[in-house]
Amino acid sequence: xxxxxxxxxIGITGGIGAGKSEILSYIGRHYKAKxxxxxxxxxxxxxxxxxxxxxxVKLLGKGVLDxxxxxxxxxxxxxxxxxxxxxxxxxxxxxxxxxxxxxxxxKEAKADKKTELFFIEAALLIEAGYKExxxxxxxxxxxxxxxxxxxxxxxxxxxxxxxxxMEKQLSEEDFRRECDFVIDNSKELEDAYRQIDERLGAYKxxxxxxxxxx
Length: 214
Description:
The chain is of the alpha/beta class. The protein has helices at residues 20-30, 38-44, 53-60, 73-82, 85-112, 144-154, 159-167, 172-178, 189-201, 208-213, and strands spanning 8-13, 33-37, 117-121, 136-141, 181-184. The chain has a 5-stranded parallel β-sheet, with helices on both faces. α1 (20-30) packs across α9 (189-201) and α3 (53-60) packs antiparallel against α5 (85-112). The two termini are 33 Å apart.
């Protein structure tokens, strides 16, 4: 994808419980940015009329639809759980659809000549090959003990569930090796906000905070 010197395309990734949502919420409030979450886009492309809808219904059957004709998340999960081979087939439909959706969104942002920061967030950003698409990749880091505490308190996850999820994600070393910039979100959010402002403030062609506050 051809890059625009004005629009900065940034990927956001990190392990579960690292606080990616809080980081993006801050950016959305303080900077002139478009923010896309890959999980939300994945739901979007499954809606009626979207590119992944018909292939998924053909693959999984109409039994996964709700009364309004939408793909029901629970029914779809149940169908995949009963036949694990379906998961890879579903991913072969959804992942390319998400990629195309995001590439089109980037093209629109470049065309409007107003967007200066474009963020894509996904836990599997590296594994899905998005590194080649972005100008830089940020890793949101938090100490494992901090992440575990957050997941227990905010989501009610058990220790066994937390361990199972974390062991399936990239290691700290892998994240740091693949990413261009690290935000440490282990402490107070204000500390993470400061790191964001310092990083984005390095882009001298951007004066977004001043513009947005005027």
